[in-house]
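Q: Sequence in, structure out?
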Amino acid sequence: MIAEYAKGADLFICEGMYGEDGKEAKAREYKHMTFCEAAGLAKTANPKEMWLTHYSPSLTRPEEFIDKARAIFPRTYPGKDGKTAELEFDEE
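A: Exactly. Output:
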């Protein structure tokens, strides 16, 4: 269902609590996603790009794991405090 709402978006901002392998069960237990699960949603939704956010406090360098998500959805980027993008909307 999330992918339906993000379908074709300019920017899909999605939580990715864990980037490390083997954290799938912990993600499910705490009702969060891994980077790869978020990338799977992005692959289905096909936005122009996806930013991952809401990292586990133990994940201090999300950029170290971003390549795993990019293998699924290449236009994946790590979000960080202060990151911005300018989006343009069609006038109706």
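The chain is about 30% helix and 15% strand.
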